[in-house]
Design brief:
181 residues, mainly alpha, 3-stranded antiparallel β-sheet
Length: 181
């Protein structure tokens, strides 16, 4: 029992660290964290051998069925992790394959322009003018999304979500959560 508890604890710690990194890189991944919290709540509710075994099995399943495929998704989508995060914010379930390609293109170009121009500036987040310029660049980029799939109201919300993501993950001077650029 003690050995199984120790194994579950170590597995829990490893998954928690991985999830923290994954959620920071892409806020859409919060659903995996919610699943994890449910597993841990069930584990904490009962400390008998069956609860420990169930927690171990559930954590292993979470790693195998959810986290590992999610980490490989950027390769399947043909995007790097940071572009995938913006793509996920912009993507809608009702898009056709052609529209998804257009959304990917907008995500790639938006991030590239931001990194070229504004996100290299040290402490850009402290300047009201630079923050406004970043917001405008994002908003203007989103006008290139498929017009029949996105309405103007959606664009304002998506623009805000992309800006919040950029603000939280790009510190300036070419540094980000994803590394230097």
């Amino acid at each position: 029992m003690k050995t199984k508890n120790a194994i579950v604890f170590d597995l829990k710690e490893a998954i928690e660290q991985k999830l923290a990194q994954m959620v920071k890189q892409n806020p859409i991944r919060l659903e995996f964290y919610e699943k994890y919290k449910t597993i841990i709540a069930e584990y904490n509710a009962g400390k008998d051998i069956q609860a420990v075994q169930k927690a171990f099995d559930d954590l292993c399943d979470l790693m195998e069925d959810d986290l590992t495929p999610e980490q490989e998704r950027s390769l399947r989508e043909g995007l790097d992790e940071e572009t995938l995060a913006i793509y996920d914010i912009l993507k809608k379930p009702s898009l056709s394959a052609e529209e998804e390609k257009e959304v990917k293109k907008v995500a790639i170009e938006t991030l590239a322009r931001l990194k070229e121009e504004k996100l290299k500036i040290e402490r850009w987040q402290e300047s009201t003018q630079l923050k406004s310029q970043v917001k405008v660049m994002i908003k203007n980029s989103l006008y290139w999304l498929p017009t029949n799939a996105y309405i103007n109201d959606e664009l304002s919300n998506m623009s805000l979500l992309v800006y919040q993501h950029v603000y939280a993950n790009y510190q300036g001077a070419g540094n980000s959560t994803y590394g230097s650029f």
